[in-house]
């Protein structure tokens, strides 16, 4: 007579991958705070160090790396994009185009990180609509994203819905990554150009030094025109969209 000695997997065995991911997050965030504390740096001094690194030949790679880990930290996407505009985008149209190029890559590496975080950790959090409760905002957008991923993501980006929320939701729903990224790039392009232009019109050194910046009004006006057009298009599409809350 044989005895079944198999046991249920322990908590660690069941969740070791998530525990590793949590440890990585603690390492990233805790490491940043520890570095700041050990070097007796203020937030402004830390920002100056980051800016100086971004001015080196490997600055674009530093920028992309910072953006990539942004979903795991407390860094602001808008602030990083403004900084990129100021560092990479000033000095003419070619530099502005390069700043846009770097930001498109960086922001969508970040979106990919958030997508796979949602894909892995969000499994089972959002159930497919069973037709009983499809009136909530998340439920309706989830259904739209499942039915037509490209259109839904494009609209969510154009409507300036929270960037990471859209990326997490796409991961939760396990939609096609390439479709998600393609629509995300197209939908967020105008907003990115506008924010980069705003950053390129300002001197980051003057802002950090506490001085009143003297903006380049031509570049600022260009960004403002793009932003106004983008917001107007967003409002027009919202008016036509019957499924928005």
Notes on the protein architecture:
The chain is an all-alpha fold and 245 residues long. It has eleven helices and no strands. It has helices at 11-38, 43-54, 59-68, 77-88, 93-121, 137-147, 149-158, 163-173, 177-200, 204-208, 217-240. Helix 3 packs antiparallel against helix 4, helix 5 crosses helix 8 and helix 9 runs antiparallel to helix 11 (217-240). It is flat, with a radius of gyration of 22 Å. The N and C termini lie far apart (64 Å).
**Which structural class should the secondary elements be placed in?**
mainly alpha
Characterize the overall form: flat
Number of helices: 11
Distance between the termini: 64 Å
pLDDT average, as an integer? 82
How many strands?
0
Order of helices and strands: HHHHHHHHHHH
Helix content: over 70%
Low-confidence stretches: 128-132
Radius of gyration: 22 Å
Strand percentage = under 5%
Described by strand count, sense and barrel closure, the largest sheet is:
none
Characteristic terms for this protein:
245 residues, flat
Summarize the structure.
With 245 residues, the chain is mostly helical.
Mind sketching the topology for me?
Elements lengths: L10 H28 L4 H12 L4 H10 L8 H12 L4 H29 L15 H11 L1 H10 L4 H11 L3 H24 L3 H5 L8 H24 L5
Helix pairs in contact: 3-4, 3-5, 4-5, 4-9, 5-8, 5-9, 6-7, 7-9, 9-11
């Amino acid at each position: 007579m044989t005895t079944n000695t198999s046991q249920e997997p322990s908590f660690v065995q069941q969740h070791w991958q998530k525990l590793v991911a949590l440890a990585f997050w603690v390492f990233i965030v805790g490491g940043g705070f520890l570095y700041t504390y050990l070097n007796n740096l203020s937030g402004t001094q830390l920002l100056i160090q980051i800016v100086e690194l971004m001015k080196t030949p490997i600055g674009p790679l530093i920028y992309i790396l910072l953006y990539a880990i942004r979903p795991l930290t407390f860094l602001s996407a808008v602030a990083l994009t403004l900084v990129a505009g100021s560092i990479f985008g000033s000095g003419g149209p070619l530099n502005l185009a390069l700043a846009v190029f770097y930001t498109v890559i960086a922001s969508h590496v970040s979106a990919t990180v958030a997508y796979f975080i949602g894909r892995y950790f969000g499994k089972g959090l959002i159930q497919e609509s069973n037709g009983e409760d499809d009136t909530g905002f998340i439920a309706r957008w989830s259904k739209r994203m499942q039915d037509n991923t490209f259109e839904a993501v494009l609209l969510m980006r154009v409507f300036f819905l929270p960037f990471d929320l859209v990326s997490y939701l796409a991961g939760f729903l396990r939609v096609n990554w390439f479709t998600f990224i393609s629509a995300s790039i197209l939908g967020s392009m105008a907003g990115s150009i506008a924010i980069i232009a705003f950053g390129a019109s300002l001197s980051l050194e003057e802002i950090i030094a506490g001085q009143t910046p003297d903006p380049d009004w031509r570049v600022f006006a260009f960004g403002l025109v793009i932003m106004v057009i983008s917001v107007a298009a967003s409002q027009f599409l919202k008016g036509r969209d019957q499924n928005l809350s």
